[in-house]
Amino acid sequence: MNKEGKTRILILDDEPIVCKRLKPTFEKAGYEVETFTDSARALERAREQDFDVVITDLKMEKIDGMQFLSEVKERSPATEVIVITGFATMETAKESFQKGVFDFVAKPFKISEIMDAVRRAEEKRRAAGR
Amino acid sequence: MKALGARIRNFFTRWRRREPPLPFPVLLERFRSILARNNEILELMAEMGDKLSGDYVFDSQYIRFSCRKLVDLVHHLIHDLNVLSKRKYMDLYAALERIQWRLDGILAGRPALEDVPYTLFYEDCNRDWSEEVGGKNANLGEVRNVLELTTPEGFAISTRAYHEFMAASGLTVETISRRLKGRGWNDPQGLEQALREIQEQILAAPVPHAPAREIQHCIETLARRAGREHLFFAVRSSAPGEDTEHSFAGLHRSFLNVPETEVFQAYRQVVAGIFSVEAWKYRADKGFWEHEAAMAVGCQLMVDAVVSGVLYTVDPAQPQSETLTVAATWGLGPPVVEGSRKVDRFRISRDPPHALLEMHVIRKDMALAPNPEGGTLWAQVPESDQSKACLNSSQLSLLATTGLLLERYFKKPQDVEWAFDTSGRLVILQSRPLRIKQAPEADACRIADVTANAPVLWSGRGDVVQRGIAVGQVFVVESDEDLRRVPPGAILVARESSPKLARVIRHVRGIITDVGSPMGHMATVAREFRVPTVVNTETATKILHTGDEVTLDATENVLYRGRINELCYYELTQEEVFEDSYEYRLLRRLLRHVTPLNLVDPKGADFNPAGCRTLHDITRFVHEKAVTELATINMAGPHLAGTRPRLLKAPVPLDLRVIDADGGTRADSDARTLQPEDIVSIPMQAFLSGMVESDLWERTPVGMDFSSFMSSMSRTFDAHRAPLEEVGLNLAVLSANYMNISLRIGYHFNIIDSYLSDRIDDNYIYFRFLGGVTDLTRRSRRARFIGEVLARWGFRVEIRGDLVVGRMKKWSRPVMERKLRMLGALVAYTRQLDVQLVSDEEVVRHLDRFMRLLEPLWEGPDHSGPEGGSHEQGRQDTNPDPGR
Fold this sequence. Notes:
The complex is a heterodimer.
Chain A: E1 8-12, H1 16-28, E2 32-36, H2 39-48, E3 53-56, H3 65-75, E4 80-86, H4 90-95, E5 103-107, E6 109-110, H5 111-127
Parallel strand pairs in A: 1-2, 1-3, 3-4, 4-5
Helix pairs in contact in A: 2-3
Chain B: H1 2-18, H2 24-50, E1 56-57, H3 60-84, H4 91-107, E2 119-121, H5 130-145, E3 154-157, H6 159-168, H7 173-180, H8 188-204, H9 209-226, E4 232-238, E5 254-259, H10 263-272, H11 277-285, E6 296-301, E7 305-312, E8 323-330, H12 334-338, E9 344-349, E10 356-360, E11 366-370, E12 376-380, H13 383-386, H14 393-410, E13 414-421, E14 426-433, H15 441-452, E15 456-459, E16 463-466, E17 469-477, H16 480-483, E18 491-496, E19 510-515, H17 521-528, E20 533-535, H18 540-543, E21 549-553, E22 558-561, H19 565-572, H20 582-591, H21 615-631, E23 646-648, E24 656-662, E25 673-674, H22 682-693, H23 706-715, H24 724-727, E26 730-735, E27 738-743, E28 748-755, E29 764-771, H25 776-792, E30 796-800, E31 803-809, H26 813-830, H27 840-854
Parallel strand pairs in B: 17-18, 18-19, 19-20, 23-25, 24-26
Antiparallel strand pairs in B: 2-3, 3-6, 4-5, 4-6, 7-8, 7-13, 8-9, 9-10, 11-12, 13-14, 15-22, 16-20, 17-21, 21-22, 23-24, 26-27, 27-28, 28-29, 29-31, 30-31
Helix pairs in contact in B: 2-3, 2-21, 3-4, 3-21, 8-10, 22-26, 25-27
């Protein structure tokens, strides 16, 4: 959490539309949000700053989402990762459960679905005393 | 080419004849697969349409994936129908290819333009054409044609003309993007240079012959209509997306008072305007892709303006102040629009009667006026007018009511350019959304307070089709006649979400229906026009009456009594980032070739593969033809070998053999006969019980006793006219949910084909009746009798001579079972009826008698309507017409 007690979220999706839609939605709901369409930059940022929740796509250009989330979890096990991915790649998505992913939301999703997932991730963190 | 086509068709026809027929279970399997895919396609189409509602986050991967899947499903559908029909509908492949070509073109960024005219008069412009004539022209078309406000006469030059003009100038999308490649915002000088070169090339290029001829033709037509020799135009930019979600305000160029001889030069200048650095940067910032760059142009006859100006329906500086602001000056509008000079300013209340709240009148010694030679010049304002307000209170009041009408219609605060002409008429020059800062959070709380105290009529009832807020007066539609009287701005209330309502959707603020499918045709149109709509509320027509004032919050799905304008205002000031996105526009463009249903009438001349313009059309066509194919399969054919027919021992003398294709009976497979209780096929159970329980076999309308009736039955057919083996037996092919029954009772020929399950969308009944023993007149009386009965029961009926076809589909299982029982009774009653029908009066007498006999058997009206239908129908009490 940041100084004001806001939950920090990092969103990574190589399609700008996803970031463009999610950023204002989460900000309106009182979160601190950073969005990335470039996974290398997202990784850079994740190395300098721990996030409470990370939302990431799996299938992207350059580095793949699996690699990204693995590194995020390695660096900061307390970070809850939510995978958003097209239903075409749902099978590979399931593999990432082993990497400690908190939840999946299949694209396309309703705003309320991703919001729920984030709230559940927050509850889990709270229950763990974080 | 034609000869070759004919030879190929002949070949297929011959091949078809020679080809051995397929086993029935194979055909049935194909048919089932058609039904299943039909549903899958309609669901996927509805899902894609849902994505436009703003509730979902989707990406371009989803759009591509869904399109590919849809085309795939439709391809399989066509294949199945051609197996079923032995390649009767090969032309459907070409129809699919045409649509696929368009979809691929849109996905690749080259929309198909060959169907688009080069020019459109404003009377033909509307929002459907916004991609082709640009937002400004499309909006103006709506203002003129829907709202019936005065707009300048003129025409639009489409993006097709643009693309051909650019191609002829050597400036295709590819060449432009090659020239701009690598010259991004980090090389501003290089980019500027490249853009300037493109502009110069445009200004020097000739307009190709075909569009030039059409433009010239439009000018001549206008001259004839106006009865003037020389015309002067306002030539305005109208890029796709401009003046709708994106303002492009001031970025594109407009030219006033252009003589008709210089229209082409002005056209080139407007087109070149897209390639100004500012416009290019705006497009890049807004997420437009290079290939989306296109320009339509509006050519409007000059308005002889006495006073011109701009109206904002909300004050952008103080959005909560409930005021409209007006800026105006003498003469033409550019000084107001450009903000280059001081002008008169007015503030008016948004509430009727729109009191004048504030007025700043300045001295106006000069006015912009048309130069008789073309172009504009500054002219001296007469001394007496210089210090006078350029608008009076009745003009201000007219501006206010007109502005609010535009705001309601376009669902956003509006920025309106207008003029009062020499005859005192208010002319709307353009209307576009006014960007207002989102209401602060405190406002959302205020809204929560207001709604908490408002009387709720219902909450969470029915299915939301399109979110949004509608405040207004209820208008209940009960008939087609009512539909013509729907006042603009009403909240339409109807029993069913019929496609008929689609006609008035753009005039109304909201729609509420008792029944209806969120997947249906009307829902698609409601979403298209973003009219807040809730269906399946069950009781809307009971609770609401014409004239009631209500507030429909289709976002939260609550209906309030009375007007809650705050809610409406809150909605108006919400920013729509979503609709600005490329993905939204892409999906919308694609869906135009997917969801509209053009083939609504199976009897229409265009009900053929060539008439299929969308994937929905093909799906509809295949469904219709598949039912016909299966119902008319020759049951006597040798392909039935292998499935052993067994005789049904029914308590009526019906010589019926049953083939169980899949789970239609539960008798031992060795049994040679079947008992009625062995039948488990849902449609057959219903039909058989109707035949038996109606007890109409004994109540023979023919004046003969039972034994002579039996002898008539046992004869089965006139041996001199048709040998038994050619006509076939009384036969039923059953599966758990399906029956195809062919009856030759007496001398007539009857087919009933039905599929019945708990999936409403799959359900149908097809009834076909032909032939008879007596002369043709009596036989067609019987056809009329049957036709009338079927129509009363809600079938869609066709009668040709002695052939009667009745169709019904997409009703719930209990309703369909009831209809099948009734058909059983009808078959029993009519087997020898033609002998009795000696006069037309007899038809009426028998109708009454039959209906009376049936009444005590299955009383009560139908309760369940077509809930899940995708080709949904308008259902009325007497003639539901559910078979379409």
